[in-house]
Amino acid sequence: MPARGHSTAQQYSLNPSVNMLLLRGLLRSLLISLGFILLITLLMFLSPLPEWIVSYLIVAGMLVSIICGAMYVGRRVEAKGWLRGGYTGLLYIVVILLLSYILQLEPEIGLSLLSKLFLGFSFGCVGGILGINS
Predict the structure, then answer these.
(1) 5-14, 72-81, 84-93, 102-111: which has the highest mean pLDDT?
(2) What is the predicted pLDDT for the residue at 14?
(3) For the chain, which end, N or C, has fewer CB atoms within 10 Å of the first or last residue's CB respectively?
(4) Are the beta carbons of 61 and 40 closer than 8 angstroms?
(5) Which tens digit of pLDDT belongs to each residue from 21-40?
(6) Which residues are CB-neighbours of 81 under 8 A, at least 6 positions away?
(7) Residue-wise over 44-63: b if at least 16 C-beta within 10 A, else e?
(8) Residues 6+ apart with CB under 8 A from 65
């Protein structure tokens, strides 16, 4: 049953302003990730940082950037911050996957991709919750 004169399709669809917020949150996440990658590269160049630590630092930077982008979205939406933060995390993983495909970096398909999608959605939800409650 539609609420307050809205059709069911209007009630459950994302409006254009929310879509723009998702894109802005995604862009913020990608820029923060770029900053992390540049910082990690600088650390590798200036210090004897073991290479096995680098992959863990990249994943940590990825998760922190998802949380930051989802917090941005959660702070600016009126409701369902967890869901829209989760969308931001999923979009982030999809964009990274597309970029790795375009740059011919042999993207990981399979269980690793599913775990990244799960982590992206989960950390996006956490960021959305933190953002809507701040």
Answers:
(1) 84-93
(2) 59
(3) N
(4) yes
(5) 899 999 999 999 999 999 99
(6) 73, 74, 75, 128, 129, 131, 132, 133
(7) eeeeeeeeeeeeebeeebbb
(8) 28, 29, 30, 32, 33, 36, 92
Here the tokens at position 72 are 């941005």
| Residues 113, 54 contacting (CB under 8 angstroms) | no
Angle, helices 111-132 vs 51-76, to 10°: value is 40
With contact defined as beta carbons under 8 Å apart, do 129 and 82 qualify? Answer: yes
Residue with tokens 């990244």: 116
Alpha-carbon span 121 to 66, nearest angstrom? 9
Chain centre to alpha carbon of residue 76: 16
- The secondary structure element, H or E, covering residue 101 is helix 81-102
Mean pLDDT for all residues in the chain: 85
Q: Give the model's pLDDT for residue 7.
A: 47
Question: Which carries the bigger pLDDT value, residue 13 or residue 70?
Answer: 70
Radius of gyration from C-alpha coordinates of the chain: 17
